[in-house]
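Figure 2 data, in text form.
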Amino acid sequence: MNTSSPKLVVAVTGLNAIDSPGPGVAVIRSLRDHFGNDIRIIGLSYETLEPGIYLHDVVDKTYQIPYPSAGAEALYHRLQYINSIENLSVLIPNFDAELYNFIKLIPSLDTLGISTFLPTLEQFDARDKINLYRFGSEYGLDVPKDKVIYNVNELYTCAEELGYPLVVKGKFYDAIIAHTMEQAQKAFYKLSAKWGFPIIVQQFITGTEINIAVLGDGKGNTISAIPMRKLYITDKGKAWAGITLEDDALIGLAHKFVQSTNWKGGCELEIMRTQEGRPFIMEVNPRFPAWIYLTAASGQNQPASLVRMAIGEEVPPFKTYDVGKIFIRYSWDHITTVEEFQKISAFGEL
């Protein structure tokens, strides 16, 4: 490794800045805002057309890594090779589906000198969609009733117990609202084909959708919590614009979640607040959301704080943030060359 390189080398996944973007590029922007030139960013990609690969002012170098289905051992060997070249300081995974392998590898990564700041497997499993209702009951958090199913015929029981409309959810991602049995069956087949089993069928809660970006220190303390209301939503249900809110009840809910679970790292609470003001936790995403740059713009840079804690620094909880900050996502045509595409395709590096 070049001795003139910055001392902090951070690897980041989730470089797919598409219509349903990964958090990677937003995480990197946050890190560059805080650390400036004292950081080198290593992108970790799965697909050859993830836009972040080719954004050279964002990512210094990218390496392809094996898909999560290849298992933890294959991932470890690839990271071992990447680390031999880059001497990684910190690694930040940003996809739900990859987290299990990365969490399993924490002791092995420690031996390589690579720091992480991730939840434990117990924390990761407890907030899983499959276990969410039990999780809410255990900690006194409002969570919609649900049923975990493996057979399409179980939808009839779900309809009887939960009523219409039903929210049919995939194991990792995607949710479809079904107003009839035919719609529910169609959603079941679509989501099981895409994500496998089980399928989660959830009680439908009406209200205002709010998301909270949260950072916990692993000891029950909330370092940061910023609530955001979506102003514009894509047909995939993703926020294309949003605004930070001032709401003590939502901040309190985030603190209660972190204190109850001793959550370590970043996460996103997906909230539905009813007309009566009752906040239901619809999902707990165990990583930073794609809109995480809004936390940096609002005065609580969660990705930078995570890196600082990962390398052993003490980070006191944030007290204030800018209310009324709006993010508006946009797309543009980035131009690259076939030579760059061929390099990442053939050699797995760019």
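Caption note: The first helix runs from residue 24 to 35.
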